[in-house]
Design brief:
heterodimer, A: mainly alpha, MetI-like fold, B: alpha/beta, Rossmann fold, 6-stranded mixed sheet, 10 strands
């Protein structure tokens, strides 16, 4: 605990030798590490240029609102109609969270169990791959026929989309058998269960976080897609509804909310991965 | 712990600490059965350091892993204090060629690992003393990636001794280290051994290392591994590095080297003087 060299420093300004906030993080964290105040400023500057530039150009060429609304109009719609959109955000979150919870739990358990039995794994893997590659959206009309226009078909679709994603990544993690470390644990008399919890599971953790992140994003896509197919609520339903009424500022406000939701999910798992799986430098 | 000291004093008359009787191990591989070791018999006295050397692939590791209870013998048995070993024993500590530290645990948590598995309480004073001795005092909060190869292997040694085993089995523990670090480690092992008189069985590719550390050196034949010969190492302890430059050590080294080369020749049926019996790491 005493060493200071492991504590990352925040160094401002210097064009050379910048010290990262996220130095030595996992592969999961390698992507979006924002490294300095300069980079933050640059990112904000790019946003200002893009948004301001769009506003200017749309004004300049008198583009009609139904083709592309101005950023300022989108912002206004976001504020004035937020109370109308908010309940739909709630519905989407319910579908996403419950579907993802079900899918991820089943995926994790399946991954943990089948990787213990190589034969079962060989048999099951092609089917899981089939589930991963089949767009679960394709099943939504069928699910609606069976379960109606409520939450159920959407939750099932989200679970079907996210579960296999979590499973296939987690299985990759659990398969990373380090026979040396397992032999070590066995030499202390560790049981199969102890080996699982104390060696295999921690070793799989970085891949599990990757699976959760990808799975949750897939879940969000599927939830919104399912809402667009049928039913009277949810952010996806708003998209079809606003576009059919040519309320483009509101339409883009919903798109904006969806983007923010996606980023939020990504950042959440990024931070979790950084906290619990940062040992994998 | 007291028992091995007495055992040493009463010498060969008492029951051996570790007894290998007609140990035979057959591996069932895809290309047929492989006889790894064939009727190996070996008695190891309490408090003795015995090295096992031999051409590569001669079954040294198989023999050692059988002693530890990690491998089951096809026939024959291993007796620890007269009782058959048929699984990992709390009396046995192991050091592998790879330090096998768990990368998600800091040094303290890594040394705590055997105690978590066994459900026992660590003797902090003893462990702190060991850490000081090997020069790792104050490094408890460091993670394995922050330690050099030598430091990691020293940590593995501390971890193996932390629960005070009466037998320490080492499987090419310093094979991956550079020559200087290796000599340092050898001196460290002897120093600790002079205090604890733990029975040590060491597999090594370095005849110098075997001579520096051992009371006896076992030379194994080419596969299938048998005990080809046993050499007493008569030099007084503590052994200095100067001793290693004497005529006696040179002669003993050569005798063992020629034996191993002879074994290799019998295996490949062609002269292989150019092939050094002891690989430079």
């Amino acid at each position: 605990m005493s060493e200071t060299d492991a504590i990352p420093e925040f160094k401002r300004g210097g064009a050379t030798g910048e010290v990262g906030i996220s130095g030595g993080m996992s592969a999961l964290a390698a992507g979006p590490g924002i490294r300095s105040l300069r980079e933050v400023l640059a990112i904000v500057l790019v946003a200002v240029v893009i948004i301001g530039g769009t506003e200017l150009l749309l004004n300049l060429f008198q583009v009609p609102q139904y083709v592309l609304p101005k950023p300022s109009e989108i912002a206004v719609a976001l504020v004035t109609d937020f109370h109308l959109i908010l309940p739909h955000l709630g519905h989407t979150l319910v579908e996403l969270l419950s579907g993802f919870a079900i899918g991820a739990t089943i995926g994790l358990i399946l991954a943990a169990v089948i990787t213990q039995f190589p034969f079962a794994e060989k048999i099951i893997t092609p089917y899981i791959l089939l589930l991963v590659t089949t767009p679960m959206l394709a099943l939504v009309p069928l699910l609606i026929l069976r379960f109606g226009f409520g939450y159920e078909p959407r939750i099932i679709a989200v679970a079907l989309a996210s579960g296999p994603m979590v499973m296939i990544n987690a299985a990759t993690g659990f398969r990373r058998v380090d026979s040396g470390k397992i032999a070590l644990a066995r030499s202390y008399g560790a049981s199969t269960l102890q080996i699982f919890w104390k060696v295999r599971a921690p070793m799989a953790l970085p891949m599990i976080f990757v699976g959760l992140m990808v799975g949750s994003i897939f879940g969000l896509l599927t939830a919104v897609g399912a809402e667009m197919v049928g039913g009277g609520f949810g952010l996806g339903n708003r998209l079809t509804s606003y576009s059919s009424m040519i309320q483009m500022p509101q339409f883009f406000a919903v798109v904006l909310i969806l983007s923010l939701l996606g980023i939020l999910i990504y950042v959440l798992f990024f931070l979790l991965g950084k906290k619990f799986a940062s040992w994998e430098a | 712990m007291g028992a091995n000291r007495e055992g040493r004093l009463s010498g060969a008359a008492s029951q051996p600490k570790l007894r290998v009787r007609d140990a035979t191990k057959v591996y069932n591989t895809r290309s047929g059965d492989l006889l790894a070791i064939d009727s190996c018999s070996l008695d190891i006295r309490a408090g003795e350091i015995v090295s096992i050397v031999g051409p590569s692939g001669c079954g040294k590791t198989t023999l050692l892993w059988s002693m530890s209870g990690l491998h089951k013998l096809t026939s024959g048995q291993v007796l620890l204090d007269g009782a058959p070993v048929d699984g990992p024993s709390p009396e046995i500590g192991m050091v592998f060629q790879d330090a096998n530290l768990l990368p998600w645990r800091n040094l303290d948590a890594n040394i705590n690992f055997p105690f978590e598995i066994k459900g026992t309480k660590p003797d902090r004073a003893w462990i702190d003393d060991l850490l000081q001795r090997v020069g790792l005092g104050g490094f408890g909060g460091r993670f394995p990636r922050e330690l050099s190869g030598g430091m990691q292997q020293r940590a593995a040694l501390v971890r193996a001794l932390s629960f005070k085993p009466s037998v320490l089995l080492m499987d090419e523990p310093f094979g991956a280290l550079d020559a200087f670090t290796r000599e340092e480690m050898n001196q460290m092992v002897e120093e600790i051994w002079l205090d604890t008189r733990t029975t040590i069985v060491l597999i090594t590719h370095s005849i110098e290392e075997a001579i520096f550390l051992s009371d006896r050196i076992v030379v194994m034949s080419a596969r299938p591994g048998r005990v080809a010969s046993i050499h007493e190492v008569p030099f007084p302890r503590p052994r200095s590095l100067e001793i290693m430059a004497t005529r006696e050590v040179f002669d003993l080294t050569n005798t063992i080297k020629m034996e191993i080369i002879g074994e290799q020749q019998s295996r490949y049926a062609r002269p292989s003087i150019a092939q050094p019996a002891q690989p430079s790491v």
